[in-house]
Specification:
Helices cover 33% and strands 20% of the residues. It is of the alpha/beta class and 363 residues long. α4 crosses α5 and α6 packs parallel to α7. The chain binds adenosine-5'-triphosphate. Keywords: ATP-binding, Nucleotide-binding, Transport.
């Protein structure tokens, strides 16, 4: 059984749709010149399972690896190590042609900015026909029918079929991008900040459209956003990432005041309107560089609960008291402890945390 965002329990088929196991993504640093040796640890040891039909939200500060995880899930980013299986088949050991079909037909991705994600020289009809042509879906008339069906599915008037992206509003462009992601009837759609480039007035419409499509089509949806309130509203389950690591995974209704990882609590405490009007939990300094992540727990340099144990190892996942809730922390928040208490605790121990932040990092 999976708990939906509205609190209802729904039964899901047992076999997972996507399983990511111990995935690491390491890039060469973009800056530093031709002979730079710096590596960016964009994703470290990610384990994640997505069930058919569920919505998983991914939150975390800028640069923590959310987009990298999203791209790994839809087979756009090959992990440096680790595995990604889609409907039981390992994506990166199958022949490339098979992977293109598996990923192309089974997944869809919606990007932040539809202005850059859509080819400006193609009409809406051409944009929506393209995946059908590439994957040779049906006859020419059937493809035309599918284009019409997709436009109606996302609420685009027929009259826009011959329009170019530049002639559409931001909201209409994002509808085209959503329709394109749905063209091949995927099981999984990953939406990476799908509303952050849109006017506030159309954001709710696009979010409602995604929720509606997800229910109607039985899609699994991975929803990446900085907007924690929205993630919570959209998702069944929330993943918190910090500096390339998944540090907590919990049912959406537990992320505010029942999260066990100090970072998740701090992140949510800084979201206006989510909890009591209290000050956010204070953290020490900025997020460390992804080229030199701290040893052990990556959050320890900013955490008010950190001690030398945290500099030693990254703990394995521990299960919280409720199903589907797990976290990786040596000194988790106690079950039932209020965020208000944590603010008070952090305020008194931040000087110690500052000292911890000065501990040596890995070379
Ligand atoms: N192709 C690349 N080459 C070098 N570094 C990269 C590359 N792609 C991502 N990174 C780095 O990897 C880290 C994770 O990036 P990612 O885009 O996944 O983070 P994010 O959480 O999605 O950030 P944001 O919320 O700002 O979009 C960042 O430090 C980023 O600069």
């Amino acid at each position: 059984m999976t708990r939906r965002a509205d609190g209802h329990e729904v039964s899901r088929p047992e076999s997972p749709l996507v399983v990511v196991s111990d995935a690491h993504v390491v890039h060469k640093a973009r800056t530093g010149g031709l002979f730079a040796r710096d590596r960016v640890y964009a994703l470290t040891g990610a384990d994640l399972t997505i069930a058919p039909g569920e919505t998983v939200g991914v939150v975390g500060e800028s640069g923590c690896g959310k987009s990298t995880l999203a791209k790994v899930l839809v087979g756009v980013q090959r992990p440096t190590s680790g595995t990604v299986s889609f409907r039981g088949s390992d994506l990166w050991t199958m022949p490339p042609a098979e992977r293109r079909v598996t990923v192309g037909a089974g997944t869809g991705m919606i990007f932040q900015d539809p202005s850059t994600a859509l080819n400006r020289r193609l009409t809406v009809r051409q944009i929506l026909r393209d995946p059908l042509d590439v994957h040779r879906r049906g006859t020419a008339p059937q493809r035309e029918d599918r284009v019409k069906e997709l436009m109606s599915l996302v609420g685009l008037p027929k009259a826009l079929a011959d329009g170019l992206p530049g002639q559409l509003s931001g909201g209409q462009r994002q509808r085209v991008a959503i329709a394109r992601a749905l063209a091949l009837d995927p099981d999984l759609v990953v939406a990476d900040e799908p509303t952050s480039a849109l006017d506030v007035s159309v954001r709710a419409q696009i979010l409602n459209l995604l929720l509606d499509l997800k229910e109607r089509l039985g899609l699994a949806l991975v929803f990446v956003s900085h907007d924690i309130q929205t993630v919570r509203r959209m998702s069944d389950r929330v993943i918190t990432m910090y500096l390339g690591r998944i540090v907590e995974e919990s049912p959406a209704d537990e992320v505010t005041d029942r999260s066990r990882h100090p970072y998740t609590r701090a992140l949510f405490s800084a979201t206006p309107g989510l909890l009591d009007p209290i000050d956010p939990i204070p953290l020490v300094g900025p997020v460390p560089s992804a080229t030199r992540p701290p040893s052990g727990c990556p959050f320890r340099t900013r955490c008010w609960k950190a001690d030398p144990v945290c500099a030693g190892t990254m703990p394995d996942f521990a299960a919280a008291s409720s199903p589907g809730h797990r976290f990786r922390c040596h000194h988790p928040v106690e079950d039932g402890q209020s965020t208000r208490d944590l603010v008070a605790q952090a305020v008194t121990t931040v000087p110690e945390a500052t000292a911890m932040a000065e501990m040596p990092r890995e070379p």
